[in-house]
Amino acid sequence: MKLTINGAAHEVPEGITVAQAVRELTEQTTGVAVAVNDEVVRRGAWESTALDEGDRVEVLTAVQGG
């Protein structure tokens, strides 16, 4: 199944969830936000939100600096 994640095409297994996609992209467990097709997905829904063919996923991580 093909998705667009952070603007790049990715081939992922059928039935992948938001949580699984995030784990493949980053090891961070805090400071992460996800939007699917321009809709923010609450962290509590990541495990139960399955992704579909052609979805656009944006995974954003907070960065600290000065």
TrEMBL record:
Q: What is the scientific name of the source organism?
A: Nonomuraea soli
The name on file for this protein is: Sulfur carrier protein
Tell me the CDD domains matching this sequence.
Ubl_ThiS
Leader sequence range is none
